[in-house]
Design goal:
Length: about 450
């Protein structure tokens, strides 16, 4: 009886709902769209004219933001200059077909002092217009909750996106043929860059910088970065796939980074940074670099294949210390660097408060694993590594003033000159360091 009552009630509901739907006036699809979004075409925007449509575009943006509705872009190219994006704005383009192009040296658009803005499926293109290297196609400053999804940033002498003092998520975007960096972020409030494709940038892929050493908490994960040049010159300031400068708490993970003039991942003055699970191929200098005033670097489970040097954890003289280097594969190291003649080939190098453990190093026309240079050595452990096909398997500084190093449980194979050697700067002074470790108070073996 109860089941029959429920069935009857359901039939009555469906009959009433169906009658109400039939009685309601039919709405044209354009009327339905008008209730949920604002069309840029309503404000006189006509793609592919080559004319300046900045005023009409700005009016469309302001209207959409005031109504709390998304702004829909048509397919085609709209030429603009220095558009100010409004609080709470959502702009949706047609993927692969909606483009905003620059008119002059100004950025195409800016986000400044506002937040909760989402841009999706929009192409930003500099085209043939001149552009200052310190500017970007899109500039973001003092903003929160900014999202860029499935957008593209192409062409120009500057950067794709420049960020200052902002919280930004950049996901599944494309950056190509940019004179400086794909993404330059200064003093971020929490930058996330995931699933992006970055190619043919003049000086850098992604920069995570701070004006002073401090917590940053940016996450750079799952991106493909390739063909990064160093048109700005220098000996490491440019030419890096990911460059972390003075920023703390940054995660650089699971990226594929290749063909960088200098370094795949470069940490400079960073704090508590993780570099894990990256594939780094064909770098012109050191593939993974932790340098200068860094403190607390975890470099683990990366693959380095092709570089002038593999992994460097250095600059005890500038306060650089405290790292774990574990589970990495380093192979196919080149005999020299095409961009920095001061780099000698090695697989892994460390100076202070560092554990080097569980790594596999193969094919090094120099030192497989090296600890210290002159007196710049303090508290380094080298354990349970495999080194195959190197001139020197493990090289340790044994000069007066060098600090403690512990060597134990390593497997060395096909070593050309010395399995484990003691060095005074660049000179081998003890070719049988394991057998004669007792002569050097800073060396202990297990």
């Amino acid at each position: 009886m109860r089941n029959h009552t429920r069935l009857s009630s359901r039939r009555q509901f469906l009959a009433f709902f169906g009658g109400a739907m039939l009685a309601a006036p039919a709405l044209h699809p354009s009327a339905l769209m008008a209730q949920t979004a604002v069309s840029a075409s309503e404000f006189g925007l006509v793609p592919d004219t080559g004319l300046d449509q900045s005023a009409a575009f700005q009016a469309a943006i302001d209207a959409a933001a005031n109504q709390g509705l998304p702004l829909l872009l048509p397919a085609g190219t709209i030429r603009l200059r220095d558009i100010a994006l409004s609080e709470g704005l959502v702009i949706q383009g047609v993927r692969g077909r909606s483009f905003l192009a620059a008119l002059d040296e100004a950025p195409i658009a800016r986000i400044a002092g506002v937040g909760t803005i989402t841009l999706s499926d929009i192409g930003f293109d500099r085209g043939s217009e001149p552009f200052a290297p310190d500017r970007a196609l899109l500039e973001i400053e003092s903003a929160t909750d900014i999202g860029l999804y499935r957008c593209s940033f192409r062409n120009g002498e500057g950067s794709g996106v420049r960020i200052h003092d902002a919280q930004v998520v950049i996901d599944d975007c494309v950056f190509a043929r940019l004179g400086d960096a794909a993404i330059h972020a200064m003093d971020s409030r929490g930058l996330t860059v995931t699933g992006c494709r970055i190619d043919q940038c003049g000086n850098a892929g992604i920069r995570v910088w701070r004006s002073e050493i401090g917590e940053d908490a940016s996450i750079i994960m799952g991106n493909r970065i390739s063909d990064i040049g160093w048109s700005g010159g220098g000996n490491g300031q440019n030419g890096n796939g990911v460059n972390v400068f003075r920023a703390g708490g940054v995660i650089v993970a699971d990226n594929h980074i290749s063909d960088c003039a200098f370094t795949a991942v470069r940490l400079n003055g960073s704090r508590n940074t993780q570099v894990t699970g990256n594939v780094c191929r064909d770098c012109g200098e050191v593939a993974i670099f932790s340098e200068f005033e860094f403190s607390g670097s975890v470099i683990s489970d990366n693959i380095v294949d092709g570089a002038a040097a593999g992994i460097s954890i250095t600059n005890l003289d500038r306060g650089g210390q405290l790292a774990v280097c574990s589970g990495n594969i380093v192979r196919n190291i080149a005999p020299f660097s095409p961009v920095n003649p001061d780099v000698s080939p090695y697989g892994i190098y460390a100076e202070a408060e560092t554990v080097i453990s569980g790594n596999a190093v193969e094919g090094v026309p120099g030192r497989g694993i090296a600890a210290g240079f002159g007196p710049y050595l303090r508290n380094v452990v080298i354990s349970a590594n495999m080194v195959r096909g190197a001139d020197i398997g493990i090289a340790v500084s044994v000069v007066e003033g060098a600090g403690a190093v512990r060597i134990q449980g390593n497997l060395l194979a096909d070593i050309l000159d010395h399995p484990v050697a003691g060095l005074a700067w660049d000179e081998v002074v003890e070719p049988e360091l394991i057998a004669n470790a007792g002569r050097y108070p800073n060396v202990s073996v297990g």
